[in-house]
Design goal:
3-stranded parallel sheet, 14% strand, 4-stranded mixed sheet, 369 residues, globular, alpha/beta, binds pyridoxal-5'-phosphate, Aspartate Aminotransferase, domain 2, Aspartate Aminotransferase, domain 1
């Protein structure tokens, strides 16, 4: 029986192999590994593709969020409200600013945070709200933008898992105060190592964030303030330039895979398929279902040569890193329940219908045993 991988990056990169090799060799031969011309080209291409004025590449999504939060005024002693169910990077970036992450539970029926819960947690110390388009499913952004306007708080979208997803016809990351992206290899626009980006419409803030990401530097050896080393490598930029034109097509293929899963599970009561908000176009960074006896099913799939993932098994509130917040079990009931039942099925743009059917049939087989 052939292995169905959870993600198979080299498989969907295969048609680009020659272009990728050429780009890599060109950069290696150039010797311009940091701030080489490909970085500016990639930033311009990405900005044009998204329909925003400027994008800045960074070393990773975590440091992009750190820059964006600081650029939008998050400081020591402040609070930033975000979801309890996300990659730890979202919360780490808040802590790196000296602020405290304030966690919120999920929107009922979805895996992303609830704007109603966010509103309940706004205090005079709140300095930003960070909705995360988790799994590539856009949140109900208007509700967050409305909160931002009502309380005068910036909204920074974490689009690390949602590059190319649309909210009301526009790409996520283009309608709020700032947004960040990740090019971690398994992301929808994945690089060949770490990488990330941020954008904001406010060009003064953009400039500050750019400088922060490059040692607070305006010119070489001119440092207006202390920043960090968070630059996108030339090599990553050159390779991402090769991949970017394929992103929409890859996302479309992921939507097709999701549709095959949705159809396959339509008559399976035990499997809850992901819900999609009206007026949004998700890009299925991962395809997550809720199932009974998740661990048993996962083991059965593994035994049948099908890889799966769990995104994420433990809500941030229950991670030791946040034990200082004293939010024990029961503090975020929706996220805690989802974490115990969720399973991420194989998802990537090169997955074919037969493979999806095999996954669906194997899940059904387990459930009727
Ligand atoms: C939701 C979310 N935010 C932020 C990040 C951070 O991105 P990176 O791994 O590029 O630092 C990730 C990546 O894991 C993520 O999934």
């Amino acid at each position: 029986m052939e292995l169905i991988k959870f993600v198979d990056i080299s498989r969907f990169h295969l048609p680009l192999r020659n272009k990728l090799h050429e780009a890599a060799i060109r950069v290696i031969d150039s010797g311009a590994y940091i701030k080489g011309p490909d970085v500016k080209i990639f930033e311009a291409n990405l900005a044009q593709w998204m329909g925003v004025e400027e994008v800045c590449g960074t070393a990773c999504g975590t440091s992009a969020l750190w820059a964006a939060l600081k650029g939008l005024g998050v400081k020591a002693g402040g609070e930033v409200i975000t979801t309890v169910h996300t990659a730890i990077a979202t919360a780490e970036a808040i802590t790196l600013c000296g602020a405290t992450p304030v966690f919120c539970d999920l929107e009922p029926g979805y895996f992303f945070l609830s704007a109603q819960e966010v509103e309940k947690k706004i205090t005079p110390r709140t300095q930003a709200i960070v909705p995360v388009h988790l799994y590539g499913q856009p949140v109900n952004l208007d509700d967050f933008l409305e909160l931002g306007r009502k309380y005068g708080i910036p909204v920074i979208e974490d689009c690390a898992q949602a590059q190319g997803a649309r909210y009301k016809g526009k790409y996520v990351g283009t309608q709020s105060d700032a947004a960040i992206f990740s090019f971690f290899p398994s992301k929808n626009l994945g690089g060949f190592g770490d990488g990330g980006a941020f954008t904001t419409k406010d060009l003064d803030k953009m400039n500050w964030m750019r400088m922060f990401s490059n040692h607070g530097r305006s010119e070489k050896y001119d440092h207006e303030f202390e920043g960090i080393n968070s630059r996108l490598d030339t090599l990553q930029a050159a390779l991402l330039n090769v991949c970017l034109p394929y992103l929409d097509q890859w996302n479309e293929s992921r939507r097709q895979v999701a549709l095959w899963y949705d159809e396959g599970f339509a008559d399976v009561e035990e499997v809850t398929i992901p819900q999609v908000l009206p007026e949004t176009e998700p890009i299925y960074h991962v395809y997550v279902v809720l199932v009974p006896d998740r661990d048993g099913l996962r083991e059965y799939l593994r035994a049948n040569q099908i890889q799966t993932g769990i995104h994420y098994p433990i809500p941030l509130s229950l991670q030791q890193a946040y034990s200082y917040l004293n939010q024990g079990a029961g503090s975020f009931p929706l996220a805690e329940e989802a974490c115990a039942r969720m399973l991420s099925l194989p998802m990537h743009p090169a997955l074919d219908r037969e493979e999806v059917e095999r996954v669906v049939d194997t899940v059904k087989e387990y459930l009727v045993r």
